[in-house]
Design goal:
Layout (H helix, E strand, L loop, with lengths): L2 E4 L7 H12 L4 E4 L4 E6 L3 H11 L8 E3 L3 H7 E2 L2 H9 L5 E7 L14 E5 L4 H10 L3 E5 L12 H8 L5 E4 L9 E4 L6 E4 L11
Parallel strand pairs: 1-9, 2-9, 4-7, 6-10
Antiparallel strand pairs: 2-3, 3-8, 4-8, 5-6, 6-7, 10-11
Helix pairs in contact: 1-5
Length: about 210
């Protein structure tokens, strides 16, 4: 049975987030709010949790998972970023953008794209998720919470709890999210390539 943490969207109760962070350490998959939609997250280095996250989401190893980082200093540990890429990312960070980058050796090979050795990274702006990342002290592996076989993300915490109460460890309810996916930009081929236009404004990136 999934635990349910109802927190303030701007000033979350740290005692509740500490309980959620403890579940991550134990290998739990959590549903959390982001600045684009609710997402499923788990510990970066827990293979069983990552496999469970993919299973719940209904995706295989070719689906890009995302690393949620607290800031750009963390991002640089997991992706190779040149000066031009860094300036572009910095202009949009934190915010609802996901960047596809070349993964460093810090990223377990099972988590990067199997043929391209790339990873999606982003720095979210949501206060609750930022607080959870601070407590967890390292990036979280994430994917948008979209039910297998569906196309729209689930934006209601109670619905998430009802649908996944036997599959996930907890739901962090901070109210409704923006309910619009991130803008995804591939930076691995020299010039930025927009793979999906979502909530993030392309003008912020100069595109």
């Amino acid at each position: 049975m999934a635990q349910y943490f109802e927190v303030h969207p701007d000033n979350p109760q740290l005692r509740l987030l500490k309980q959620a962070a403890a579940l991550l350490e134990k290998g739990g998959v959590l549903a959390v709010p982001t600045d684009s939609s609710y997402a499923l997250v788990c510990h970066l280095d827990d293979k069983a949790a990552a496999d469970r996250l993919r299973s719940i989401r209904g995706v295989d190893d070719k689906h890009h998972l995302t690393l949620l980082c607290r800031d750009l200093s963390e991002l640089a540990n997991y992706a190779r970023v040149d000066n031009r890429q860094y300036r572009l990312i910095k202009a949009a960070t934190p915010g609802p953008y996901t960047f596809i980058l070349e993964a460093t050796k810090e990223v377990p090979r099972r988590l990067s794209h199997p043929s391209r050795k790339t990873i999606g990274l982003r720095v979210p702006e949501h206060p609750v998720l930022q607080a959870l990342l601070a407590l967890h002290s390292e990036p979280l592996l994430a994917t948008t919470l979209i039910a297998a076989g569906e196309t729209d993300s689930i934006n209601d915490a109670n619905e998430i709890r009802e649908r996944y109460e036997h599959q996930i460890a907890a739901v962090i309810d901070a109210g409704a999210c923006a309910h619009e996916p991130t803008t995804v930009v591939d930076l691995t081929s020299g010039e930025p390539v927009v793979l999906r236009q979502g909530r993030g404004d392309l003008a912020t990136l100069g595109l």
